[in-house]
Write a structure and sequence with these properties.
The chain is α+β, with helices and mostly antiparallel strands and about 140 residues long. The chain has a domain at about 35-130: Aspartate Aminotransferase, domain 1 (Alpha-Beta Complex). The protein is built from 3 helices and 5 strands, in the order H-H-E-E-E-E-E-H. The chain has helices spanning about 15-25, 45-55, 120-130, and strands at about 65-70, 75-80, 85-95, 95-105, 105-115. A 5-stranded antiparallel sheet has the order 1-2-3-4-5. A hairpin with a 5-residue loop joins strand 1 (about 65-70) and strand 2. Helix 1 (about 15-25) packs antiparallel against helix 2. The protein starts with 16 loop residues before the first helix and ends in an 8-residue tail after the last helix.
Amino acid sequence: MTWRPKIGKPADGSIEISEIREILLSFDDAMDGWDGPGSVSPKSNTVQNAIDFLNIWPLQMGVPDPELYFDGTVALELYGEGGFTRGGFEFIDENTAAFAALNHSDVLASGTFNPKSEDEAIESIVKFRNALTSGKIDAG
């Protein structure tokens, strides 16, 4: 059985933060094999870490797209107007998260942080946002 999020993105692409939370919560229902052989469910606490992170997300950066990757990583991704990724935040396991700010194929900033530390999470958001607004980034 293939697992899919309970809430899909509307046809016009608009989505609210509360809907992002619901989609993230639905990731907990994914079981090993959800996307074919070898795909795994999210690791312990990664969904909750992403939800906690979303609670401090600055809305001026836009609304992130929630993603569940084949390896069980939970992510919040930002896309530019042209559909190119601007980067995002990945929740890898209970104590590890990573971020990357991109300009097409150029990495403007990246790093790892403990998602359980609000100070580290905020610091990562600041680095990410500064990279995106540094004047080096294309709208996409």
